[in-house]
Amino acid sequence: MNLNRFKWWLVAFLALISLVGGGSLVSAHAASDPESDFGVTPLLPKDQLSKKANYFDLKVQPGSARTIKVSVTNPNKAPRTLVVSPINATTSDSGQAVYVPSNRTDSSAQTTFKDMTSGPVTLHLAPRQGKTVTFTVRTPASGFTGEVLGGLFVTNPKAHRSTSSGNFTLQNRYAEVVAVALWCQPNQVLPINLKLASVTAKKQNGQPQVLAKLRNVTPALFGKFDVHARVLKTSSHQQVLTKSLKNGSMAPNSWFNLGIGLGKKPLAAGEYTLKVHATSGQRVWNFSRNFTISAKLARAHNETLHTKQPNYWWIWLLLAILLVILLLLLAYWLGKRRSQDDDDNDDDADLSAKDATTTDTDTTAAKSTDEDQSHLKS
Fold first, then answer.
1. Where do transmembrane segments lie in this chain (predicted)?
2. Fewer CB atoms inside 10 A, N or C side of the chain?
């Protein structure tokens, strides 16, 4: 009886855990795409500056040319057509240095990896075949200051997937990249010059935002980049919006838009002030810039707030609680019913045993009476 009741309570408990945990446990795995499998290995030269790096870290001479090579392999049973392209390192709107095709190189760059390197190569690979791809890098006669940072971007044009990184969207999802860092004066240390180029309020990806364009006009990569931005009402200095970026990074001579959403409260059209406090290690920058939120943008933002659908999460929570209660009541009822059935079975067994005992007693008594009568006759 107690064991059966325990079983039903256990069922109810497991149901409760399932609801609280958000449903059944699911084993997630990445689906393999047969169009996407290839390998890329940099063939690092002997004059590599950093012997531990798995990317090209090279000193180049002004007015000279040199080659860089990568090995591309197709481990599949089907042929592959791949494209290997030189690209510039840039910065995404999430505030991270990235190696993807884009046009975000800042105008302050003396030269770029893409400008210095020979063009894209289309590579046809038979099944289980590998090939070496060679690019020529030509350094300007005047050389360059700091670091030129880019990469060799390898993709399969038939692997049609899409992904986003900040404002970048890649239609050819599966790709590999080998980074390339070039120096005329290896590991030259330069003071980072960060600038606030512009502040505008407009729709970005369909959402009203304040966009602060930040430029790294130095030919140097830097990280540990933290930004805290505040939007104030110019007339009253009342803070209305904030945005923070933690542990970001910026590629040499690149820019990105720091997007600040307009929040969940109505905003009036008018003059506002953006204040930006940015740090990278011991480096500190502070910027302040006035801008205008137009009546059209303010109206679009406020209408979005008014048409926002109500949140019915509390109804789903109530339904979940009711379902748990029903499961518990069902388990209790089933356990009690099973217990009663067991008790009834025990009572029936007792009655059967009692009847059997009574029958045996009557039989014995009858036998004794017969024997007594037989004795009297004799």
1. 313-334
2. C
